[in-house]
Amino acid sequence: MNGRHDEGPPEHGGLSHDLPVLARRRMIGLMAGASLVPLVGCAPEGKTSASPASASAGCARIPEETAGPFPGDGSNGVNVLKESGVVRSDLTRSFGDFAGGRAEGVPLTIRLTVVDAASGCGTPKKGAAVYLWHCDREGAYSLYSEGVTEENYLRGVQETDDRGRVTFTSIFPGCYPGRRPHLHFEVYGSLAEATAAASITNTSQLAFPQDVCDAVYATDGYGASVKNLSGLSLEDDGVFGDGHDRQLATMTGSAADGYTAALTVPV
């Protein structure tokens, strides 16, 4: 797995967390380009291609990304994965013994389909699990950021169904300085492994198209995101800048009625 920590809101540390990860991935790309042995699987320039054992031609694994400094999985302080109630589809409210607050924003449904890369992405990963988390409308992460350390909203786990799919109900995240809006997720082999915070299979991030970000950030409550996103393209982002094709969500809906973000996750 690549580095565990990435950038965050300024008070928590910045883009420096990502630099070792990006440097390592670029070095891998250079080594691959110099190799006489062709790599199996097609990946956008700058992303690490999967090995022959982990992907068939045309179906590379989801790029590995940092989990960031606010994972809540026990790797950096608090561990929400062992809390009763973390297995849920609606992420908008805090649960358990936490404050019980609610995250406000443009409604977002997230549909991830986990598939087996070695099968050419044709076989769903039934019975796997996904832990997903992201910042709120103000760019703050529950459990970590000032003002929301007593909240645990916008975090949850789902088990994949027969189609390898998990569905979460959330809100569209804000944009904080230095990063494009994004979602973090970890894939586990089973629900039991996820709730034990053990044996992570893959860690990655989901990106959003520019037109959707613009539409959402024109609504009430996202004022700071307009400034933070201005002039920051996916190519300039510290994580997505070396390739984002396989992490860019397919979007449907509207800012008025809410959006659905869909992404296939080969593992």
Largest sheet: 5 strands, mixed
Question: What's the shape?
Answer: globular
User: Tally the helices: what do you get?
Assistant: 4
Structural class: alpha+beta
Give the total of beta strands.
9
Tell me the radius of gyration.
18 Å
Q: Roughly how many Å apart are the termini?
A: 13 Å
Kindly describe this structure:
The chain is α+β, with helices and mostly antiparallel strands. It has helices spanning 19-34, 191-195, 210-217, 223-229; strands at 107-116, 123-124, 129-133, 155-159, 165-171, 182-188, 200-207, 250-254, 258-266. Strands 1, 2, 5, 8 and 9 form a five-stranded mixed beta sheet that branches.
Blueprint of the fold:
Layout: H1 19-34, E1 107-116, E2 123-124, E3 129-133, E4 155-159, E5 165-171, E6 182-188, H2 191-195, E7 200-207, H3 210-217, H4 223-229, E8 250-254, E9 258-266
Parallel strand pairs: 1-9
Antiparallel strand pairs: 1-2, 1-5, 3-4, 3-6, 6-7, 8-9
